[in-house]
Amino acid sequence: MRWPTLFVSHGSPMLAVEPGLTGPALAAWSQAQGRKPRAILVVSPHWMGHGLALSTRDQQVAWHDFGGFPPELYTLQYAAPGSPELAARTQALLAEAGIAADRDPRRPLDHGAWVPLRYLYPEVDVPVVQLSLDMGRDAAGQLELGRALAPLRDEDVLIIGSGSLTHNLRDVRMPQNAPATPYVPAFQDWYARHLAAHDVPALLDWQARAPGARQAHPHDDHLMPLYVALGAGGEQATRLNDEVSYGALAMDAYAFH
């Protein structure tokens, strides 16, 4: 079986204790697959740099890379196995495409990785490798990267891009179910339509074409993992979730086949 790829919006770290509609949607998708992948490769904007790096830990730990949240959040763990084997295979695959990637034996899982994984694979029994986000790549560059990673899908590996479909923290409002800021549903709808049509030229030109693009993403880091998942996944997009959290964080999730 060839695995689809996932784009998940991880929103606030509070997703770990406030599942809303997103947690059940991710859990339902995982259960519907009927089996687990051999390993997971996840890209998150909370590990960014110039160029790429892969975590090579034998044993993963959850990094609580945030501050000012309730104490219960800092007690949560996600001690999945690591996979130096998958890290080496990914590095070799990227090298074949002319893309360099370093190895990092110390890097733990940031919350963009471990928070959604708690809903996808709560048994914590699937090995996880994290790939950093190359901040020098635009949408087209991330799509190219995803295409280079695509062979992993035939090797029983699930590729996940974790980010947020909208991410403007200045517009965040309490409580979790606060009404959506007007640009958020417009941005969600634009992506839903163009992903369904597999309109790659429009998707790559999102900053000029998507309504409210500058408001939705003052910085593009949380959107770029979508393009990695899209490049690795294929033409068919299935929308798994369309929740809006705290008025400004679109929690859309997509599976790409």
TrEMBL record:
CDD domains: 45_DOPA_Dioxygenase. Keywords: Dioxygenase, Metal-binding, Oxidoreductase, Zinc. InterPro entries: Extradiol_dOase_DODA, Xdiol_dOase_suB. The keyword Cell division does not apply. Transmembrane segments: none annotated. Its EC number is 1.13.11.29. Its cofactor is Zn(2+). The keyword DNA damage does not apply. It holds the Pfam family LigB. This is 4,5-DOPA dioxygenase extradiol.
